[in-house]
Structure formats: C-alpha cells, structure tokens
Amino acid sequence: MQHTAIALDHVREDLSPAASVMRIRLAQLLVNESLRKKEFRVPVHLALGHEAIAASVSAVMGEKDWLCLTHRNAHYNIARATSLKAELAELRLTPEGVAGGWLGSMNMANPARGIIYSSSILGNNLSVAAGVALAESVAATGGVVFATTGDGAMEEGSLYESLEFMKSARLANVVLIENNGWSMFTRISERRCVIRTDSLADAFGIPYERLTGNDPWRYIAALSRLRNIAIEQRSPVIVEIEVSTLGDVTLPAEGRHINYHHGVAPVTFSDWPLIKQDPSDPVHVLMERLGEPTAREIAGRIHASLLDEINS
Amino acid sequence: MTDYVEYINSRIRTRMSSAERLIAYGQNIAAGSHLSGLTRGLAGGRGSSIINTPNIENALAGIGFGVMLRGMSAIFFCKQQDFLLLGMDHIVNTYNAIRHRGGLGSFTIVAIVVDSGFEGPQSGLHNLSDICSIAQVPGYLVAGRYDADIIIDRHLVSPGFRLIGVSQRLFRTPVIDLQGMPSSNVEGDIFQYYDGGDATVVAFGLALPQAIAITRGFDAAHRTAALFSVNNVWMPDWTAILSSLARTGRLVVVDDGKSANRQSDRFLKDALLHCRPKAVVDVGRRFSIDWARPNADRLEVDVPAVLNELGLPSTQSA
Predict the structure, then answer these.
(1) Does the distance separating the beta carbons of B59 and A162 come in below 8 Å?
(2) CA-to-CA distance for B22 and B238, rounded, in angstroms?
(3) Which end of chain A, N or C, is less surrounded by CB atoms within 10 Å?
(4) Which of the residues A68, A108, A128 would you substitute to probe the B interface, choosing the one with the greatest number of B C-beta atoms within 10 Å?
(5) CA triplet B303, B305, B310: central angle to 5 degrees?
C-alpha cells in the first residue's frame, strides 16, 4: 500500500514491515487520544503490542484472500485500511466510515480491503471463516481465509467445531490464535486448565506453528510458508502467536496488575511510540533490528503523514 | 397419492436444479434415509455442491453466513428444529452484523419440526416463531401443496436469510391439496384456501389440518367459513384476514405452536381492536408439564364445541 512504502537511503533492508508496524502503532495511539477525549460512543478494544502479527498478515494476504476478525480488530483494520480517516469516521458512526457507520468498532469490517467479517462474540468468526473458505473452495478461486482468535475465544466450542469442518472439507484457512495470556481480567491459570494447542492441532491433523518475538520480517516469511501449506495441502493451519497487550495497569485499591482490555490505554501519542523497553513491544523489536535512529526516523515520517491524513 | 415429504422433496429438487453456485449441506443429507426422504436426490445447478457434514450445528449455522457473505447460496438442512438452538448465536448475532450489506447471497435453513410425538422431552420444539422473533428474520412453515409451491419457489434460494420449517408429523400423510382457488401474496406469507360468510378460520403454525377439520364442520352444518393459513411466522401483513373477519364477525384461531409469545396472540389483539368480532374461539395449547415426557404432541380440536362457542351449533342445521 502507498502509505507503508518508505525508503531510507542509509538502510538496505525492506522497510515496509517496519513502516506497517509503526503505522498501526501510531494510528492506535491517535485512536487512543480520541478515546481520551470521549469522541466515540462505541467501545474500542485497542491492540497495542499486536502490531507485528497484523502487519505480517496484511503483507502476505493475496488479492483473493479474506480476513475474519474478532472484537479486537483495530490492528488489522488499520493494517488493511487505505484511510485512517475512514476508520475514525466508522468509530464515530458517521456515513464516511469504512462501513458507513453501520458497524462501529467490534464488528468493523472492510470487504473492499479483504476484511469480510468481524464478530464481537467469542469464537463466532471461526465458523463464518469456514463458510467463506467453503465458498472459495467450491468456486475454486484459490483464496485463503485468515481468521483471528485468542486464548480466551479458543475456549469456546466453536473452535473445535470449526477446525473439524475446515479439516473435513479440506479448506484453506489460516487460524491465528493471538495468545496474550488473558481473558478480560483473568489470566489463563486463573480460569482454566492448560490447553496444548499444538496437541489439539495434531489431533485434527492440522499443521501448527508458534510465532514469538514480534519480528515482522520473520513473521512474514513464516506466514507466507504457512499460507502456501494451506493452499497446497488443502488444509487449515493453526498459528499461535505470543503477544502482550500493552497498556496494562495496576489497580491502586487492590495493588493488583491487570491487563488492558478496552477503552483508553495509559499511553500518550507522540512521534516516538515506544511503550515498553523489551521484545513484548514490536516497536522495541524494530529499534533493536534497525537501530534507534532509523526506527525514530520511520516513526517521525509516519507520524507526520497520519496527521496530514486525518486533517486533510 | 403423493406424500407430503415426497412432494416437498420434489419441489426442493426442482428449485435447486435451477440454482447455480449453491452449497447444500447438513448431516446425512446425501446418505441413509436422506432425512426421511426430504433430501433425497439433491443436485444443484452449475458450480454447486452437496455436502454431508459432521455433527456441528453451531458451526453449520455460521458456515451458511460465510457462504452468503461471498455472494453464493447456501441451504442448511437441519434434521430437527431443536438442533438449531445450538446455532442461535449465528442466527441472531451473525446475521445482525451483516444484514445491512449489499451483495449478499442466499442462506436458508430448512428445519424439520419434530411434531410427530413420542420423541421424548427434548425433541418437540414447535417454536419457529420464537426463533424468528429473536432473530428478526422471516420464517415459513410448509403445510401443504400450494404453500410448498410458493414458499419453496420464492424463498429457498433468494438473497437474504430465512428459515423454512417442515412438519415431521405430516411426512407420510398425503400432501394437503385443497380444491378450489387458493390465493396468497407474492411472498407466501398468508394463504387463503376458502371464502365463506359465517366465520373466519385462521391456522397458525402447522395447524392447517386442524383448521381444515373445522371448516369441514361448517360444511356439515351447512355453513361457510373462510379459511386462512398464516405461514410466515414473522410480521406478516394480515389485512386480508381482517377484511374477511369484518364481514363474518366470527373468528376461529387455531395455533399448534408451543410459544408463550404467540404470533396468533398479536393477531387476536389486532382482530379485537379493529374488527370487534361478536364471537372468538382460540384453539391452542397452554403449557403443561406433560410436554416434558413422551406424548402424542398433537393439538386436538373438538369441532362441534368450536361451532357451539361461535353460536353456530353443528346440530342446528345438520
């Protein structure tokens, strides 16, 4: 996309993944500022810390591929959008929005950019993704259907049923489990037994891979390979991605640390959007890989372009 | 004589054969008894597919919406209407998230209403109207030949989403084929089978056989009754029925549904407000704990009693 094309004379590396990650981060921080000003009536679930996987999925999607998302879809919608202004308009429920103001945040979809469906119901989007892939299969388009879920949503029976159908009908689905270890305000260990996703995939005969480290170049290579497996083997694949949802807080009264869920995150918008100094923050990973000056230069350019875009 | 299920199967096959890019699916729809014959011999037109699926009702409901999002047509044949309870999330929530969009394909769920009795306490859900009410979607119950023709031709494959219910109780009975000049609106919401001056008889749900029995009672008493069937369980326009009632002044409502939120009650309210009939008989069911054990599950009608309640004793003219 035009808005992720960026070149710096002193850097040989393909900077598109870095630019995409930075754009998703900065755009989310702009949305966060609007949340702080109470500009939206709809609940918004930011995905700070999830930028690397969204940028990578967007990068590997083919023209006939589709995405089915969850309520936490801001990172993918921004990654695929051609206009942040239209995303913000959708959150304001105005006719200029990507869905004409019909969908708001948790169901935001953008079929023109491959986002065919988003659901606010845990697990709901998986069987819809199976249906989209079934249509692609019967019509023999060669399209692959990506579906996101999380470590909370995967507790729903819908995951089991959907994987069963995807495998039985030999559908080219890529199921992305964004595992942040939390479901709202409870950790996995506080609410359920351990689920070995690799063993679950094995039980269905579905290829499985785990991605960690928030490196978009590595993620893109892995996802390209897995997408090809889905096409060649006519099989779903499961990709579990380790993410940290940034913006966590400690409750003053209880002294208890809780994960960010939705609404305003306790971070501010600037041209240097680093939130955490460790690999849980994809911006930190860019900084480590490209060097801080280059990462800052990319951030600065995108920061300026986003402000131009929303003020145009 | 053609059985009900054979007739409906033939109409479905005819409609499907002319539909392109159609995916029909469900459990055992192309195997074994083919859902007691309902789905025997299915084949779509160009680019179509027939799929026997695993037992995954929630996913099967969602899959249809996925197909619909791609502008293609899907039919989910569901062996028992109560199985749809497992897919209600999609029937309500998924459709609400996409119903405003243009370019949607067709998605129809054809469910067998297990009204044949003695299936046990978990298999007797009659409440298509409840399902359609919480989903805010049309739903059509098929009772006989004429309504099957219009409902299947008009709705089985058509942009949008709806449910069609068929009666297991009627499967092996001769398909209802009333003589005369039945009529309906284009959508197949409401059917009129007879006209008459002494009363207006209205069947809701799958109560057309009982309503016919009542009109036969009128015949025996040398009276005439208008006979209607309300086949669309969600928000039909019943102006034609109210016009009939304004002439006859006597109303018989027959509803075999088990809902506490009956569409027939909404109709009765309109009838009482607008027509002020001189006599009303409401033939229906009231909840009983007996529903929760194997039973005949049939709405019985005492025809002479109905005529007596209307002030038209069956012995008077007979």
Answers:
(1) yes
(2) 33
(3) C
(4) A128
(5) 100
- Give A-chain residues touching B51 at CB under 8 angstroms: 169
Sheet of strand B106-113, all strands in order from the earlier edge strand to the far edge: B49-52, B22-26, B73-78, B106-113, B160-167, B139-142
Q: Is A312 exposed, middle or buried (CB count within 10 Å of its CB: 0-12, 13-18, 19+)?
A: exposed
Please state the ipTM of this predicted complex: 0.94
Q: Is some CB atom of chain A closer than 8 A to the CB atom of B58?
A: yes
Beta-bridge partner residues of A150? A178
Six-digit token pair at B25? Answer: 């699916």
Q: For residue B302, give how far its alpha carbon lies from the nearest alpha carbon of chain A (Å).
A: 47
**Cα–Cα distance, A149 to A178 (Å, whole number):** 6
- Provide the pLDDT confidence category of residue A13 given band limits of 50, 70 and 90: confident
Binary contact (B97, A107; C-beta < 8 A): yes
Contact B58 A118 (CB under 8 A): no
Cα–Cα distance measured from residue A143 to residue A191, given in angstroms and rounded to the nearest whole number: 37
Q: Say whether residue B48 is in contact with chain A using an 8 A CB cutoff.
A: yes
- Say how far apart CA A182 and CA A188 lie, in whole Å: 6
Q: pTM, whole model, 2 decimals?
A: 0.95
- Asked if B67 is an interface residue toward chain A (Cβ–Cβ < 8 A), one would say yes
